[in-house]
Design goal:
The protein is α/β, with parallel strands linked by helices and about 575 residues long. The chain contains 22 helices and 20 strands. The chain is globular and about 75 Å long.
């Protein structure tokens, strides 16, 4: 095979192949030419070219999400490398193994006025799980050992020890484009072995004792890969009378015994009701929680105990009342914990489920008479959605409306909740669809997020299994529904950034189909067409009145307040 003439580069590429890397996203540049040539010509990789580094890193992250495997992204030196930062920070908090490789000038040239040169050493330090300087130009055996050791360590850190993105910076001297015909070489690989984690008898007894004193136990499930075993364990815990399971669409679990629309249940609570429904023991699993209201309520009515369960729990004290950090996979924890549990007489679960059922009725009645708006649009989108869809939903109000409507029939739901940015939502969905061609993907995004990440379309890869819904409410509609911005004169120009755009030109430029909806019946037709199994590469843009949306949402919360529980 013909790879770069640089021995260090061949070693990097062959070691990553030996470790199991298969997918590489390549960004254009000169300093990274030895890496581009070698990844492209090595038979072990599929390479995908993406021009915009910001979009490329989100694309690669989306691929890693869908494949559940590390994916690499490669850039040249300078600000190109910095453009990976937004996706790296998202992968950091979502704990996705992104392998970040940046070519660099020789260190001697840092801050010496040479072109496209910045200090790239540990440049992502605040949101990276490991950072390594590799030797592109090998001058000594120790350089080879160093490269091999760093690549192995970084791979293990990214995939096991401290899951998340790792950065390999590779200073390179010229010439850059020379190649050599070489025989494949075997590269050493070392692995961190996985060990089974178990609670000691003493710890298990103590946790069971705490549980036995709690009339009110809440399990709150945050963002999580789809996991059938977890579904089974939580459904079993949910049969206990003192336990209620609260979840969101991004946790990818569903059961009639779960509270799946948290805000629907808690937004209209008065103080006494909130006190009664907040737990003595809070058990948290998974990643980010979308509902601001449940976070506020749990911080206000602090539980006696809070157990956070997760292999990489980071001592997160999200509710300011952490008592136990349990470094185990939740499935292994519940398998060991959920045996012969004692607990006091309790109607806690019944209390929640009665409330859920009653509000479900009000919700359905409100929908029947609700005005055309973002609220009614999400109802139609979710109601008509077939059950074979993998859904990517953008931050801002889409992910929030997405929690109000039934999502149990959706295959999987993903959102960039690590940092809640609107800067890479479409690129992430594109990457996932590209990595998983046999699945059907749908992206729901707001108009600002859509236009922000329009470079997600700027590549030459024909992605056949993705459709996109753009909610065009004339700017950042969320600033009309959260309290605060709507009271100040800066709202439209500086927060909502009111705008009149339409996505038809984006569709035209990139060869996607386009249709628009402006009311309930055009939406019905547009969705009917969009959800056909044969429809792909189709953008449906749904226009709503910015002034109407907050009125309808407020009417909804007021309607739910009509509680006589
Ligand atoms: C990268 C980034 N910049 C700015 C923000 C702040 N922000 C949050 S929501 C939002 C507006 C999003 O508007 P749109 O995508 O149209 O969704 P809508 O609010 O209409 O639901 C902005 C600017 C952010 N979350 N991420």
């Amino acid at each position: 095979m013909e790879l770069s003439a640089k021995k260090g580069i061949r070693q990097i590429v062959e070691t990553l192949a030996a470790l199991g890397l298969k997918e590489v996203v390549l960004c254009p540049g000169s300093r990274n030419a030895p890496l581009v040539i070698s990844f492209n010509r090595h038979p072990g990789f599929r390479c995908t070219s993406i021009r915009d580094e910001r979009s490329a890193a989100f694309f690669a992250m989306g691929m890693a999400i869908a494949k559940k495997q590390p994916v690499a992204v490669v850039s040249t030196s300078g600000s190109a490398a910095l453009n990976f930062a937004p996706a790296i920070s998202e992968a950091f908090y979502q704990r996705i193994p992104l392998i970040v490789i940046t070519a660099d000038r020789l260190k001697a040239w840092t801050d010496q006025g040479d072109g496209q040169t910045i200090n790239q050493t540990d440049v992502f330090k605040n949101y990276i799980r490991g950072s390594y300087e590799l030797q592109g130009d090998i001058s000594h055996d120790a350089d080879s050992w160093h490269n091999n050791r760093c690549l192995n360590e970084g791979w293990n850190v990214a995939t096991i020890t401290n899951k998340g993105p790792v950065h390999f910076n590779v200073p390179l001297s010229e010439p850059l484009y020379q190649t050599a015909l070489v025989e494949p070489t075997s590269q050493r690989v070392f692995r961190e072995v996985s060990v089974e984690r178990k609670l000691s008898d003493a710890v298990l007894q103590d946790l069971k004792y705490q549980f036995s004193t709690c009339e009110k136990v809440m399990i709150l499930a945050g963002q999580h890969d789809k996991d059938r075993d977890l579904q089974v364990q939580l459904a079993s815990m949910a049969t206990l009378k003192n336990v209620i399971v609260l979840t969101e669409s991004t946790a990818n679990i569903s059961s009639p015994l779960f509270i799946e629309h948290i805000d629907r249940c808690i937004t209209t609570l008065n103080d006494d009701e909130a006190q009664a429904l907040m737990p003595d023991l809070l058990i948290t699993i998974g990643g980010a929680i979308v509902s601001k209201r449940i976070k506020a309520a749990l911080r206000r009515y602090a539980p006696r105990y809070h157990w956070n369960i997760g292999l990489n729990h980071d001592f997160m004290d999200t509710y300011q009342c952490l008592t136990s950090a349990i470094p185990m996979h939740p499935v292994h924890f519940f398998e060991q914990f959920n045996t012969a549990l004692n607990f006091p007489v309790s109607d806690f679960r019944e209390h929640w489920l009665k409330r859920k059922e009653y509000l479900e009725g009000l919700h359905q009645r409100f929908i029947e008479q609700c005005t055309y708006s973002d609220f009614s649009v999400f109802n139609q989108i979710f109601r008509q959605m077939p059950d074979d869809i993998v859904l990517h939903i953008a931050n801002s109000s889409p992910i929030r409306y997405g929690q109000l409507f039934d999502y149990g029939h959706i295959q999987e739901t993903w959102c960039n909740r690590g940092t809640s940015g609107i800067d890479g939502c479409t690129s992430t969905a594109m990457g996932s669809a590209w990595a998983s061609p046999s699945q059907r993907f749908l992206m729901i995004t707001g108009d600002v997020a859509f236009n922000y990440d329009v470079n997600a379309f700027w590549h030459d890869h024909t992605i056949e299994n993705l459709n996109i819904i753009v909610i065009n409410n004339g700017g950042g509609g969320i600033f009309r529904i959260i309290s605060g911005p709507d009271t100040i004169e800066e709202m439209e120009p500086y927060f909502e950034t009111t705008m009149k755009t339409d996505a038809s030109l984006v569709a035209l430029r990139h060869g996607w189909q386009y249709s628009k909806a402006v009311d309930a019946s055009t939406l019905q037709d547009a969705l009917k067409c969009l959800y056909l199994p044969t429809t792909n590469r189709h953008i449906v843009e749904i226009f709503t009145e910015p002034e109407v949306n907050p009125i309808v949402l407020k009417a909804y919360w007021d309607y739910l307040k009509k509680s006589n529980l």
